[in-house]
């Protein structure tokens, strides 16, 4: 046998490389990794609107600092804090959203396997809703402490006069805030404050998001094709995000309010979820339950569109890493 012929018979990759590629190309693992990428991309794209939404949400009646239009609110944020104001809390948010999104997408694909009538079969809308809800709850429990810290970081530099802090004051970072909350606000329970309204909102939100996306994506896929174009994927992501956010938005307001319920100077101290709903509606009207929805809807389209597109692109790439016969 000649040297060139013997070289062609050698495996292209070693056994350890092939094992790694096979593991990465598993559908659940690929979805887990792609979900992390999707979360980081989508949150960074809309970071200024995400922070502005939070500042709108946490204002009680009588507060005027951010009683502004979206454009003026963004201008005030830039004037007070500059570029860092737009990105304030985004580092923590990405640290949170990467595992959050990874667990969410990965667990959704995991739960789908239990609801498939036969392997690879399509799920009904109800089963997609249930799988998405379960995935949302799973991801919340894994990453909630980082979410509450992100909320604190988002508001503590935002020139709320009653907070007694100006934008030039040196502020604690992610770990400093986390440790302070743990030591002074009740230990581990402090890091899960507001989780009940969060779970109540996340379960239907994620369920609706996954269900709507897959339905719209299927509708937008040309007959005879397996995948729609990138533009149609972006459209499906934007539609699914808008539907899910609008239906579950009041839970998001409650979540933010409870996350800062123990901070002084905010103008409220709610005793329970029902007390919070009663007080907000009595003092701020029904529209109080939808504070911040305008910047939220403005961010939904680019956020969910970029999230779903980056997820599918990354997942499809990872699935191609599965070893082929010529690699062996």
TrEMBL record:
Mitochondrial transporter that mediates uptake of thiamine pyrophosphate (ThPP) into mitochondria. Its main location: mitochondrion. It is found in: Mitochondrion inner membrane. GO terms for molecular function: metal ion binding. One of its GO terms (cellular component) is mitochondrial inner membrane. GO terms for biological process: transmembrane transport. It is a multi-pass membrane protein. Belongs to the mitochondrial carrier (TC 2.A.29) family. Solcar repeats lie at residues 26-114, 123-219, 228-317. This is Mitochondrial thiamine pyrophosphate carrier 1.
